[in-house]
Amino acid sequence: MQYIKGHHKPAILIELNLKNPFEQDILRYTIDKSLLELSPNVLSKNSKRHYSGWIFTQDKIAKVAQHFALLSLQKVIDGTLLLRFYDPAVLPQLLTILNPTQQKKVLGNVQLWTLLDGNGDLYCYDNAQNNDEGSKYLFQLGIDQQLENQLYCIGITNQTLKSYRKNNPNQKFNECETLHHIMPGLLRLISQGFKDNTLLVQWANIVINNDKDFDLYPQIQKKLKTFKTRYDFAPLLDILKRADWQLMLNTQSF
Which end of the chain is more exposed for a tag (fewer CB within 10 A), N or C? Predict the structure, then answer.
């Protein structure tokens, strides 16, 4: 079974019979299309993008569609969150921040979930041993504030990698490892009340080139405690983009 997700649109499920030559061609087309869209130049554009993933399950397509629909809407503290778990740019990272019970709820009766990651490499998640029938049909993940902030970090990581791949087209990036490198610093910034998307992407672009705890450097912590809005960050961001930022922080006042 294949699913396709357009830009900010629900997933479309297509049931494929791989014994049928025409449906084999559909599968080949979606794989080729996905590979073409993963080029750095395409990823850097803001145009609409089509995503594909391929899942193997014994369930009927109507049951899979119901699973997708019910799981996509998650209750959070301030209302309802659209969880795009089916997005190939989200699923691998998502599974690394969920606990085992939450993972089972997401994967349901999917036995094998395959997709192409941002490097064009095949990602396969084998869920054949998921025998916990009870958790498969409880669609709320129990998202608390901490997990909601972590989910937000997935989007920031993807935006960061989008521009980073454009500037480093020959370099591969492990999306899950990048998330866990960037996320600690982002969460510390969010905990201080800064959740502006533009600021967090700028911060992530600095973290990706430094130690994940670089922001714990005393001079940076001292400055962060004085900031009230994202506009206060501009001088600090300019310095942190430099290779010699530690020296600059120690010798300059701003």
Answer: C
